[in-house]
Amino acid sequence: AAMLITGCCSAPQAQKSLDITVLLTIAASFALGVALDKTGVARLLGETLVSLSGGRPWLILLMVYISVSILTECITNNAAAIIMLPVVLEITEKASLNPEPYIFALMIAASASFATPLGYQTNLMVYGPGGYRFTDFLKVGAPMNVVIGISTIVVLILGWPLTA
Known about the structure:
mainly alpha
């Protein structure tokens, strides 16, 4: 809106810059997130993760991070974050945990999508024109995902109280 008001771009230019597939993916992800919440799937997934962790907050944090990280490599990062948010909120409520570090873990895991060309739009943009293979992303991206994951978990455990 500010760019239109100040004349930095015209309405047709702004309209051309919208990526309809990204907007549809985000809209569909919101609907899927709401559906997971309304149908009780988020509750079931939350209860399952809490029981698998034995109620240990640091393990729940790690499991949230890994779950979102795997999901974001298969679908877009926006979709992974929106789909997993109700699950994470259910987990933190069921286990009486401080939701903030778990939501931070979700945000970072969804954004750290380096191991496949599918998880982020720029990965797909360079995949074909750059002549990359799927394995090229795995070779470089998987170690980057691990480094970011370990760093994130350590910072969250040391920097925020995990329990409410």
